[in-house]
Amino acid sequence: MKPSIFISGASKGIGLAIAQKYYKEGYRVGICARGEEALAQAKATMPDLYTFVCDMSSKEAVKALVPKVSEALGSLHVLVNNAGIYLPGSIIDEDDEGYENTMRTNMDSAYYLTKGLLPAMMAKKSGSVVNIASIASLDAYPGGGSYSISKFAMLGFSKNLRFELKPHGIRVISVLPGAVLTDSWAGYDGPKDRLMPPEDIAEIVFTSTTLSNRTVVEDILLRPQLGDL
Ligand SMILES: NC(=O)c1ccc[n+]([C@@H]2O[C@H](COP(=O)([O-])OP(=O)(O)OC[C@H]3O[C@@H](n4cnc5c(N)ncnc54)[C@H](OP(=O)(O)O)[C@@H]3O)[C@@H](O)[C@H]2O)c1
User: Fold this and answer.
1) pTM, rounded to two decimals
2) Would residue 86 show up in a list of annotated catalytic residues for this protein?
């Protein structure tokens, strides 16, 4: 049986690049997103792709997704918690809904999805959980606000999970990218080659999950060659 991977929020951007990489490497790949059109576009280029419509900001929707993913893909070899939104803001000015939606989408989704899918991985004593954090997990910056709070939380989740899963044979890998050229940067009008390509994130994730099971790449910090934007 071919190995399997599920990636949340992966109809575009970094998640889609990860899906394409593992698909090319022969994995059974599942992804979710809210929008059906982008999911259909992804499936048009990867016919065996499993797609699920799911709003990851809803705890109920995430819990309902778990058995569907398990049924389609069995016990996962790789789970990538990637779903995330970025609403520029500051703690002082942003509204409650922006804060709560960001925390639900960027942090709570990973917590509930992982808890739902982990037991089958633990039973097999193998696999990798990859958590897409950010350089915003490390420092405050202008326009960070809720996003940066959610990414600090994501890194905390990832580190605690790594600690807990050491005896269970499951790798936990935190990925902390700087600026990556995706729709998250839709308003950016500077040179595109100033940002990292999403395919580079996919390459390093693939490598980190295919090393010998005696090794864990705990933290992957990636920045544009010219530094942060
Ligand atoms: N791009 C960067 O510079 C950068 C840097 C560091 C970290 N990151 C992190 O990398 C991850 C991916 O970012 P990206 O830039 O690739 O984003 P993106 O290009 O905007 O794509 C986001 C993907 O997530 C899906 N999504 C958004 N909200 C969702 C929800 N509530 N439920 C389910 N799916 C949802 C989107 O589809 P729908 O809208 O159809 O749901 C889309 O497929 C995020 O966690 C982000 O914080 C990005």
Assistant:
1) 0.99
2) no
Which regions of the chain does DSSP assign to beta strands (E)? Answer: 4-7, 28-33, 50-53, 78-81, 128-132, 171-177, 219-222
Task: Measure the CA angle with vertex 3, ends 182 and 23; round to 5°.
Answer: 35
Q: 3-state class of 179 per DSSP?
A: coil
pLDDT digits (tens, 9 = 90+) for 27-56: 999 999 999 999 999 999 999 999 999 999
Ligand 1 geometric centre to CA of 48 (Å): 22
CA of 56 to the centre of ligand 1 (A): 11
Domains and CATH numbers, the chain: 4-222 (3.40.50.720)
Is 14 a pocket residue for ligand 1 (Cβ < 6 Å)?
yes
Atom of ligand 1 nearest to the CA of 177: 6
Residue 90's SS3 state is: coil
